[in-house]
C-alpha cells in the first residue's frame, strides 16, 4: 500500500529490484546483521536517472519512509520504526 501511494505520487512506473529476502539470501547471508528486507519492510526501486532518483528520495521522505539508501541505479526505502536514516551505496 505505501509503495503504491509512493509510486502514484512520483508519477512514473516502479520496477522493484528487491523486496523481501530471507536471511539465507546471498546478500543477507554476508551481513553481520540482517537488513530490513528480511523483515518485509523494504524495497529497492530502480531509477533511470538523477531526476527519478531525486523524486523518489523526496517523495519517500514525505510519505514517511524512515530508511532511504541512494545508489546509482536504485533507491532503497524502508519503514523502520527507528530514527530516520539516509545513506549512499
Structural write-up:
With 89 residues, the protein is α+β, with helices and mostly antiparallel strands. The protein is 29% helix and 24% strand. Helix 1 crosses helix 3.
SSE layout:
Elements: H1 2-10, E1 16-18, H2 26-29, E2 42-46, H3 50-62, E3 67-70, E4 74-78, E5 85-88
Parallel strand pairs: 3-5
Antiparallel strand pairs: 1-2, 2-4, 3-4
Helix pairs in contact: 1-3
Please provide a brief summary of the model.
29% of the residues lie in helices and 24% in strands.
CATH topology: the name is: Muramoyl-pentapeptide Carboxypeptidase, domain 2
Global morphology: globular
Please report the number of helical segments.
3
Total tally of structural domains: 1
Provide tags for this entry.
single chain; 89 residues; alpha+beta; Muramoyl-pentapeptide Carboxypeptidase, domain 2; 5-stranded mixed β-sheet; 3 helices; 29% helix; 24% strand; globular
Amino acid at each position: 500500500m505505501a509503495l503504491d501511494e509512493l509510486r502514484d505520487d512520483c508519477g512514473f512506473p516502479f520496477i522493484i529490484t528487491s523486496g523481501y529476502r530471507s536471511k539465507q539470501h546471498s546478500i543477507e547471508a554476508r551481513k553481520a546483521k540482517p537488513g530490513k528486507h528480511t523483515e518485509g519492510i523494504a524495497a529497492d526501486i530502480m531509477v533511470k536517472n538523477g531526476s527519478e532518483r531525486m523524486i523518489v528520495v523526496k517523495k519517500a521522505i514525505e510519505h514517511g519512509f524512515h530508511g532511504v539508501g541512494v545508489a546509482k541505479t536504485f533507491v532503497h526505502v524502508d519503514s523502520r520504526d527507528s530514527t530516520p536514516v539516509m545513506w549512499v551505496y
